[in-house]
Amino acid sequence: MDSLSSQYQSKDFFDELIDPQGKPRAPAEQLLNYLNSLSEEELEKRRLTAEATIQEMGISFTVYTEEGNIDRAWPFDIVPRTIEAKDWKIAEAGLKQRLKALNLFIDDLYHDQNVIKDGIIPAHIIKDSKNFRPECIGVSPAYGVWAHICGTDLVRDEVGDFYVLEDNLRVPSGVSYMLENRAITKRVLPELFENDDILPVGSYTSHLFDTLAALSPREIENPEIVVLTPGIYNSAYFEHAFLAQQMGAELVEGSDLFVDEEDDCVYMKTINGPERVDVIYRRIDDLFLDPEAFDGESVLGVPGLMRAWSKGNVALANAPGAGVADDKVVYAYVPAIIRYYLDEEPILKNVETFLCEDPEQRAYVLENLDKLVVKPANESGGYGMLVGPHSTKKEQAMFAELIEENPRNYIAQPTLKLSTAPTLISKGTLEPRHLDLRPFILQGKETYVTTGGLTRVAMKKGSLVVNSSQGGGSKDTWIVETKGQ
């Protein structure tokens, strides 16, 4: 190991590419030897190629600020993250197990609620959940599946073990960036894709289409599938358009659809007249889906949509109400949920979690705010959280008040020693940066897990916040078959 990585060190953390002796780990050997063969000038040329590709392909995301919405180019690091295939197979099995149990859990909540009756989870946890939808009680989606598309965030600890950080079962985003990261990397490092060691990711959209098509209430050869977007000002609009285009589905807004009052079916307005819609991949939050059922002032949704869905005339993915399992308080009960529904031990571990609604656990959290990460139960995108070791006394005092005012709304977790990976932070210089991973799981008639997922990286030195909205970036994720596997 010389030149590029000769001075690289990641003290006190598990580095996923380089071991403590400075040698490449097995799945990263070919990558790092190749990068070391490049001059600083050539490496910089590759980085600039990546930037130009992102601009050319129009890969962007939107950040909401007090000054307004800002479109930014997708932040990307050209050094991929590598994971050994044998390690990934364990994580994949754990994700399938977890989502199977969570869908059984959601279905139970909207029917018999045996999980509450049998004392696995307290009734008030569900009663007080912001994402439990009484309007969904008694509805039975196809295959008993509510969360058809899930993005589960994984992290690796100081010895490289995978942990689940959180589950995203409402309208998870990021998969388009996973696919685009691979497309960019193939342009920047094409020589490394000449063999079959790096497993492909490109089949996701065909799996997504098949998952959605299988939900159609009509048994027809070509069901009408649409992607329902809030519109161009949504932060994930790039992804909505990308996925619709890749699947050959229509990208629609609420005003493009209507529910016929005579048959309670959903129709799309076209120049040739109304066309019936079978499946809606919705990228709109529950409360904006149907002004008749939820927020009466919403102009994003479709009046009568919940009525059409509950009667089985249209499929919604993800189903309304699936977000009840998104709750970070519910997260703490997932290992027990897996044991209850599947009679199995969890393959993937949860991060240790303190529930602030419990007096003893709350007292511990309040005494250790400087050491813990505090999260609100239903926020996403890295918003509304306290990273204790990087916080001020003033911020800690503010969170203490928030916790005391609404303890049900907060959980706390130890500050994890998140794994790192080499990241190109300036010309010819690699430094360790913390990262997480969001694989995407499709569930319906069959279950599919992406090969790896979206790696998000904290571009700021020492930061644990990887969200792009909070200054994070991204890498391509390689699941690598090594010799002897």
From TrEMBL:
Domain of life: Bacteria
Domain Circularly permuted ATP-grasp type residues, every copy: 80-458
Pfam short name (any one): CP_ATPgrasp_2
Gene3D superfamilies per UniProt: 3.30.1490.270, 3.40.50.11290
PANTHER family membership: BLR5612 PROTEIN, SLL1039 PROTEIN
The protein's name: Circularly permuted type 2 ATP-grasp protein
Organism (species): Marinomonas arenicola
